[in-house]
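Quick one: structure tokens for this chain, please?
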Amino acid sequence: MLTVMISCNKEPDFVGLDLLPGGDRLGMDFTDTVDILAYTVSEVPLRTDALAVNLLGYINDTTFGKVSASIYTQYRLESSNFKFGTGAVADSMFLTLVYAGRYGDTLSPHRVRVYELDDKLTAENQKAYYSNDTCAIKSNPVGEVTFVPDFRPDTLRKMPALLRIPLSYEFMQKFITADESTLSTNKFFMEVFKGLYIEADPAATSGVGSMLYFNLVHPESKLQLFYHNDTDTAANVNFVITDNTIKFNHYEHDYTSATPLLKQQLEGNIQAGEQKLFLQAMSGTKVNLSIPYIGSIPGKEKMVVNEALLVFTNAEPQSLFLPPPQLTLRLYSDEAEYIIFPEERYNVLYFGGQYQKRGEYSFRITKYVQERMMHPEEPDYGMALLISGSALSSNRVVLYGPGSETSAAKLKIYYSMNGL
């Protein structure tokens, strides 16, 4: 029987999970030769209707191919029972979006087009929207702008950095000529004006391109209509996005021009994952992995696992595309649902997954390894390696696979032999 030493102030289930500095490993045995099976697969659609920021843009990546992000959103009245007044005439109208970040080559020009929705977004029956969802739009754009992103705030007017898109006269007239009932409540307003679809035109993006992050619930992210009437020569009204507004991101991936190693894995060639593994946010790719022979380690019956680290190394540390700051590791259930590792429940930082300066990600899975050694007969459905916050991030990273001659993915096990 395996004897487990219990130390003070530790939960029994986490004995042996202490962070072990190099000096504390003296006298322990070590192995990193346990086989790992890992390969890249497509990620499932992710829910995108409750994001803190929304993505818009296009990237042409020689490694991952092409990816685009577009936005569907409703707008609301800023106040009920609004009236334009007698003799109202539209002067100009703008869609403004407040920047919240960027990723990729931000010097690449973008062309953004805006369309009016032809179907309304609904929250009926607790409907949720995912990254592969779409909504019907009207055929002609109501606005367009070509620009290079400028992330400098307007300090003179005390305005945040924002994108400003001029909208058509025909679109303005829809609001000016709306009857009083349409402008009386949000219920009536959203029946007539269902919202906007905002997309980046890939044909206008030269070079690599970029993903732009926007804070749609910022007060300056809005539709603003400037008009005059018989009594006011310079009036304006805002239509806004609030926490109650339905909005979601739609993501599209085209791997036709991706690197062959990635395409081979997505086509089902598991062995291609031996050399490199590919993680991409925005419902792009994840990595399935398992440690199939861990129950066959010689002498495992007498081994006390002091620490087990699953380590992955960035294969492109000099890439233009910054690696994700955090990865996530999950166990699979028998129904392919994600299960949190016990080490993560104990302490997220202790579990790991943060990107380290040496270009590595590591996860502490000591309890899992010990239990697989003790109970190899129990079913094991493998693990998934993912980018944390993948639904609202555009990061990607290439990792060395377990068969790479350079910085291969490894399971590092520090252990003691019971009775020695």
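The first helix runs from residue 169 to 176.
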